[in-house]
């Protein structure tokens, strides 16, 4: 492996690999910074410092994991025979703390990285590159930046209820503008982490949030029971009652028509801007949510 661009780290166990990833800015983290909104910096900080609960996966990630070797084989057979399935961590020798784990890597005879492959499964067919979720494209640009590869084969499989319906691919080249944006986000994240002050909540407040969560759950259950009793009482017919103390209404919503704001903005951008009016300044909002055990 050429020391000019990146070096390869190998591990004996998945746990070692997970621990090593925390030391670096990975493609997943950088894609989150690029697309994840205002909360991305804190999420990345917590991921890198082991403060977040690890994602346990779901049926979709399990399916993607199972199909990954099939998609890598497709990329090797149809695009570049040098591609080899990989779970190794590639660390940049030019960008501090930058790393990635491509699904497949193809090297030149001198050991430098020539081409990558990224395997994805999708419920929605990607007919053109613009259909690909942005986070995947940002991930790939970070991988290209870290490894110095000339291209990445984004190979994807469309499925319906986990039944394969076909494989296709796009060839993604390095995008200078996107990579410069990623480097700027990296610099901002470093500054954020250097100045980070860990938010802490006294146990008293945490206990109160937990108590509130239980009361809300009990209230929801009581509300559901009461609604069911009222529906049974009225026979499911529309109904309205009101006095000085209480109001009860059962109504069947009418079909709604929704104005397609995003489509209108694309079709008539100038007209859209004429009628955009700034809203009131938002007030501070407090969100209380208990995430632990009851």
Structure description:
The protein has helices spanning 14-21, 27-35, 40-48, 59-78, 134-147, 176-194, 203-234, 261-267, 269-274; strands at residues 6-9, 84-85, 89-92, 99-100, 104-107, 113-122, 151-160, 163-172, 239-242, 247-250. The protein is an alpha+beta fold and 294 residues long. The protein folds into 2 domains: 6-194, Lambda Exonuclease, Chain A (Alpha-Beta Complex); 203-235. It has a 5-stranded mixed sheet. A 3-stranded antiparallel sheet has the order 1-3-4, with helices on one face. A two-stranded antiparallel ribbon has the order 9-10. The longest helix has 32 residues, at 203-234. The radius of gyration is 25 Å and the shape is globular. The mean pLDDT is 87.
Which key features would you list for this structure?
alpha+beta; Lambda Exonuclease, Chain A; 5-stranded mixed sheet; 9 helices; 42% helix; globular
What topology, given as strand order, has the largest sheet? Answer: 2-5-6-7-8
Task: Provide the structure class.
Answer: alpha+beta
Question: What fold name stands as the CATH topology of the largest domain?
Answer: Lambda Exonuclease, Chain A
CATH class of the largest domain: Alpha Beta
């Amino acid at each position: 492996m050429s020391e000019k661009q990146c070096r390869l780290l190998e591990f004996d166990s998945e746990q070692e690999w997970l621990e090593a990833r925390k030391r670096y800015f990975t493609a997943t983290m950088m894609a989150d910074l690029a697309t994840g909104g205002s909360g991305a910096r804190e999420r990345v900080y917590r991921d890198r410092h082991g403060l977040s609960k690890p994602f346990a996966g779901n049926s979709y990630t399990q399916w993607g994991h199972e199909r990954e070797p099939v998609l890598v084989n497709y990329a090797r057979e149809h695009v570049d025979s040098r591609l080899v399935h990989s779970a190794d961590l590639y660390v940049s020798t030019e960008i501090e703390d930058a790393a990635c784990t491509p699904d497949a890597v193809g090297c030149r005879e001198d050991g430098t990285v020539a081409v990558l492959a990224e395997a994805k499964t999708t419920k929605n067919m990607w007919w053109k590159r613009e259909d690909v979720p942005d986070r995947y494209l940002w991930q790939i640009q970070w991988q290209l930046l870290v490894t110095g590869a000339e291209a990445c084969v984004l190979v994807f499989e469309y499925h319906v209820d986990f039944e394969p319906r076909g494989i296709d691919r796009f060839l993604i080249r390095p995008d200078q503008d996107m990579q410069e944006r990623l480097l700027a986000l990296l610099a901002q994240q470093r500054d954020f982490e250097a100045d980070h002050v860990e938010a802490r909540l006294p146990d008293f407040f945490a206990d109160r949030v937990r108590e509130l969560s239980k009361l809300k759950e009990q209230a929801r259950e009581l509300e559901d029971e009461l609604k069911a009793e009222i529906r049974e009482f009225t026979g499911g017919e529309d109904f309205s009652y009101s006095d000085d103390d209480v109001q009860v209404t059962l109504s069947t919503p009418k079909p709604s028509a929704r104005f397609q704001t995003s489509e209108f903005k694309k079709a008539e951008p100038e007209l859209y801007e004429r009628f955009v009016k700034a809203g009131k300044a938002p007030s501070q909002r407090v969100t209380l949510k208990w995430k632990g055990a009851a």
